[in-house]
């Protein structure tokens, strides 16, 4: 029986090659792209699930509510918290702390200098909590002794080549001599913790021991393992009492909380200073899932429309089968078998398409998906499930529709009532193009927003700026001599030094300040960002002075500038000459406001411009950390000159530099990826929809061949016939537009909310999208329509 069904399905498809090709092409595109999106979404949702204790691992976070209208959460806590939880809270089984208390580790090995930033120190029990595979050394003892070092495989090869690194000593290291005690596999992509080097404790002095028991310093990344995963709510309920006991000076302004490890990657967009190397977006999970479903639905609609439009051609077949004794259920199974045959063929072809497309998809998503013998078995279940669902959804309505045809009317020539089927097909075409228009609008909006980001005025000149890191105390002491030599490099027009730069990728220092109009009056504290600039920064970055003046020389060491947002936050009506006070470890630091800078975007456009205070490079709050060089000309020669000067003053650490505009662009990598995926999905959606529209137009014209011949004999022009045949599709696209426009507006308005600075959703975007959809629809059906309009009526009337 099954064999006969498959044989009938094969014969039906080979007799109707155009129908089969259109359906297979649409389904291959729909299945392959939706499966790739499924793999991407599944990967995003799988972060940190591979740890055996993942259901019981939580990260401690702290929320600062001192600014009630802007509470801020941090992934870094006090170092004493973990031990307190293990010792006094029965819910907690164990804890581990990570630290990274300097920006880089510098060491010398075999006469070569290395400088690494992706590292942590950890408590000895780190590997009992996190499941990381060892390829060398013993995970139970790797971090037991002080000054031990565990490397990833890639770093072990980088440092030691083909030598066995276990037991090797690195004598000239920032922390003193360290010993390699373990080598681990490189981290999987779906781990929020990504590090190249993991040290055991590198300090054992009294100051370090005091720090580890401190409730005043915030510098530890603390993870806990619960005895029972369901006890987390009870533990959270005890945190206010713990905070009041150990941090009474904050009152209710500070709160401890816990974040499940599996929520870190997708749920930390509002958590600052965490351990995660990258954040995911739940919004994009929903968007990509919806996009994959949309594309599958469009492909299914193609099948349904084409299958029901061919009902007239297959009505006699149905009549004959019923006359010879076929039951309705048997006919349904037969037609479903055709649907499943098409989808299974499409599934097999989709594997080949995915294999070809994955390299480009990886470039867009930043992942590393591929198809090999091992991964194929992982991809087959979702592929097979998608194929079965698509086959059933696509085939069930046409199967029931064809199976219920009356044998008498079918054998008489198929003169049955098709009005209901036609209405259903029209509704499906409307729905199909509504989905396509939503994708089209979204693609245009995302493209315009990304273009806006790249071209909007951010308040300073970001072009041709090279930022060079200062990683040596020797450089800081001789920075003026180094600055002069940088200025003498041909092609360098300006050189400046600063503690941080606009567009900073590291944490920008924040301070609570008090502003006053007179030396005796102190207003409420305001939390502001702080950077230290030298006298050349304003000209190098083309910062604009709104009032007062910029720094003139070292004599301005107790002077500061405010941006316009800081003036508003401090409530200063006449800021020039106002006194600003900072609390520091060495007491109060007072500075006088000498100027006001126009607001500039020193962070990404996701964030509103915040208050910032600019001090001088020689202030007591923060030391200098960067040179910025304005360049023009031969970039390669200029970089060579910059490197030569760096090596002259800093023989130990390799040069670190980047172009500021490229760094700013990295803030929007996620949006660029979404934009590219949307463009791909939008183009594929339009193509699949057009495939179906072409097939539908073909069958509609074949059905009306005699009618067109009669109309032409009675005097209808080619233009009249073209308008007659295309008007149906035009109306359907128009109705689809009316449905899609509000939906697209709602979706894109939500997406734009992640940006503080964004484009407006004006009517032009939607009109252009509708016009494009209409043009594509007309272009798709025009070939068949024009061919029918110009056909000889004699041939049309002779057709059986």
Summarize the structure.
The chain is an alpha+beta fold.
Structure in words:
By secondary structure, the chain is of the alpha+beta class. Helix content is 50%, strand content 17%. The strands form four sheets. Strands 1, 2, 3, 6, 7, 8, 9, 11, 12, 13, 14 and 15 form a twelve-stranded mixed beta sheet that branches. Helix 8 crosses helix 11. The longest helix is centred in the middle third of the chain and has 38 residues. It is globular, with a radius of gyration of 34 Å. About 1% of the residues have low confidence.
Give the helices and strands, then pairings.
Elements: H1 2-15, H2 17-45, E1 57-64, E2 72-74, H3 80-88, E3 92-99, E4 105-109, E5 112-116, E6 119-122, H4 126-129, E7 134-137, E8 148-152, H5 153-160, E9 169-170, E10 172-173, E11 178-184, E12 197-199, H6 206-212, E13 221-226, H7 232-246, E14 254-260, E15 271-272, H8 282-309, H9 311-323, H10 328-365, H11 373-403, H12 407-411, H13 419-455, E16 465-469, H14 473-477, H15 479-487, E17 492-498, E18 510-516, E19 526-533, H16 537-541, E20 545-548, E21 559-563, H17 564-570, E22 579-584, E23 587-597, E24 612-616, E25 626-631, H18 635-649, E26 657-659, H19 660-665, H20 669-703, H21 705-713, H22 718-752, H23 763-789, H24 793-798
Helix pairs in contact: 1-10, 2-8, 2-10, 2-11, 2-20, 8-11, 8-13, 8-20, 9-11, 10-11, 13-20, 13-22, 13-23, 20-23, 22-23
